[in-house]
Amino acid sequence: MSYFVIAYPDLKKADYDFLQSYRKKYDEKFYNIIKPHFTLVSRIGDVSESNLVNECKSKLQAVSMFDFEICCATILPSPSKGLYYEILIPSKGLKKLVDMHLKLYSGELMQFYSENSTSLPHIGIGCSGSANSSIQNVSRINKKNRKISGRIQKVDVIELDNNTIREIITIALQD
Q1: CATH number for the domain including 154?
Q2: Is the alpha carbon torsion for 134, 139, 144, 145 positive or negative?
Q3: Sign of torsion over alpha carbons 49, 101, 83, 141
Q4: SS3 category, 141
Q5: Helices 94-105 and 49-60: crossing angle, nearest 10°?
Q6: N or C: which end of the chain has fewer CB within 10 A?
Q7: Alpha helices for 27-151 (secondary structure H)
Q8: Which domain holds residue 109?
């Protein structure tokens, strides 16, 4: 069992459908478990749920809603797992996502900051055991010059246990 803090983006239907279509094919492990999202805090285990919720509420109380735009896919290798994650990183809105990510890991959650939490906030769209496959997939996406725009209006604290998501709380960002 692990806790995560994520942001489900508000997306246009066409963009959501594109992501889900791609994820259905290339992200088989998580496609049926969780919708497209930005991970802000990952794999927190040894903390009480109420402390985690209170910490997130406190850190996010002054954070405002914001827009983002994604124009590029890339690969996040995980050598220890022998996997290559296909991810989308926003060009617009990245600073605000990183600020939230770092703010959440300050204070009570600092003890959980590790190599698992140092990647940029992103939307995972695929995973492969082959670098070549991931390079080809990401190159195909980038050749299309597709832009995905959306808005972050809330952050969710969730629990992942045996491939089942339990939504704990949704924290609305300031308007």
Answers
A1: 3.90.1140.10
A2: positive
A3: positive
A4: helix
A5: 130
A6: C
A7: 28-31, 49-60, 94-105, 131-143
A8: 2-172
What is the C-alpha separation between 168 and 37, in angstroms, rounded?
16
What are the pLDDT tens digits along the chain (175 aa)?
A: 899 999 999 999 999 999 999 999 999 989 999 999 999 998 888 889 999 999 999 999 999 999 999 999 999 998 888 999 999 999 999 999 999 999 999 888 888 777 555 578 999 999 999 999 999 999 999 999 999 999 999 999 999 999 999 999 999 999 9
How many structural domains compose the chain?
1
Q: Which residues of 139-175 are buried (b: 16+ CB within 10 A; e: fewer)?
A: eebeeeeeebbbebbbbbbbbbeeeebeebeebebee
Task: Enter the DSSP assignment of 122.
Answer: -
For 98, the 3-state DSSP assignment is helix
16 touches 24 (CB < 8 A): no
Please give the pLDDT value at position 115.
55
Q: Where are the alpha helices (DSSP H) in the chain?
A: 13-26, 28-31, 49-60, 94-105, 131-143
